Inverse folding.
């Protein structure tokens, strides 16, 4: 009996030690609205597997792409409320809620996704905005330059923009209006038919959308309006309670992975832009380059969009000038 008790105690001690060695300590769910085949979705799933690998199985993640767990607009609140533990979506779906980070989405003249991604992460690190205090941010990324594409009419001057109907939403809609065009606020999935049927004359969108949404099939002209190019910030955030449940060593590993993956997302966006440009040209599309003086005129015309941001930020008690100045400084 004594020997049996000793054996039982030894087994119990072994079971207590074993979990620290190999047991899964935290299980997470990851919600993402991109479909499984999208390059951003594939990178998100690769992040999950990399976290599992480098933490030695201490953190295991179930991945739910295509909005199967939470839809794009509900993703952030879904993380806060615990409907998912990690989420990827874009801040613009909750316009006005993230006033500091909103500066990154302005038409500041982006030239690449790498630049936009670096800016987004730099702005977060600089200001650590209270607007994101209800989650644990992992990292941010931004798509490549949002530019102008038209169906039948090439646009190379501000005069060409007058009265032109352009599908655009959010900041890009404000930009279209500032440039003299007429914005038509419709979601991206409807864009192809709007362009094809002549409901709109053109669209403001990232270059990659020419292939991913096949917009290069219906748009005949692209304007390299880089002086007013915008981006959209995408977030990857974790529920604060779940983050706190992860051991410090694993947290350190995840932070390192986050920095690597931000760069990977940017590279994927830039490669997708290159493919989107090739697709557009292969369909017979033509690129219109703005003359230097015209590019400067477009940037000047877009200033009211920036002024509007300053007014809104200052109304919220923020130093809009400081936020915008720092955001601009990261592009140089």
């Amino acid at each position: 009996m004594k020997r049996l008790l000793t054996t039982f105690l030894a087994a119990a001690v072994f079971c207590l030690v074993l979990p620290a060695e190999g047991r899964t300590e935290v299980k997470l769910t990851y919600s993402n609205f991109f479909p499984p085949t999208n390059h951003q979705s594939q990178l998100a799933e690769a992040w999950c597997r990399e976290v599992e690998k480098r933490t030695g199985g201490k953190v295991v993640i179930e991945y739910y792409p295509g909005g199967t767990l939470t839809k794009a607009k509900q993703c952030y609140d879904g993380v806060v409320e615990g409907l998912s533990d990690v989420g990827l979506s874009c801040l613009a779906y909750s316009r006005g809620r993230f006033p500091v980070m909103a500066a990154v989405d302005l038409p500041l003249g982006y030239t690449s996704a790498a630049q936009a991604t670096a800016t987004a992460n730099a702005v977060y690190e600089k200001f650590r905005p209270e607007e994101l205090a209800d989650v644990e941010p992992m990292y941010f990324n931004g798509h490549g330059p949002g530019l102008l594409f038209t169906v039948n009419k090439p646009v190379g001057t501000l005069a060409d923009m007058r009265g032109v109907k352009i599908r655009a939403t959010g900041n890009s809609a404000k930009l279209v209006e500032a440039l003299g065009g007429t914005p038509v606020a419709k979601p991206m999935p409807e864009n192809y038919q709007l362009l094809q049927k002549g409901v709109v004359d053109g669209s403001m969108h990232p270059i990659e959308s020419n292939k991913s949404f096949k917009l290069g099939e219906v748009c005949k002209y692209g304007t390299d309006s880089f002086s007013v190019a915008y981006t959209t910030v995408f977030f990857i955030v974790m529920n604060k309670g779940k983050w706190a449940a992860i051991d410090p060593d694993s947290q350190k590993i995840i932070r390192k992975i986050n920095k690597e993956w931000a760069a990977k997302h940017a590279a994927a966006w830039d490669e997708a832009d290159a493919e989107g440009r090739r697709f557009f040209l292969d369909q017979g599309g033509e690129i219109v380059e703005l003359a230097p003086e015209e590019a400067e005129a477009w940037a000047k015309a877009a200033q009211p969009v920036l002024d509007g941001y300053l007014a809104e930020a200052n109304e919220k008690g923020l130093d809009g000038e400081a936020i915008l100045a720092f955001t601009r400084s990261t592009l140089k």
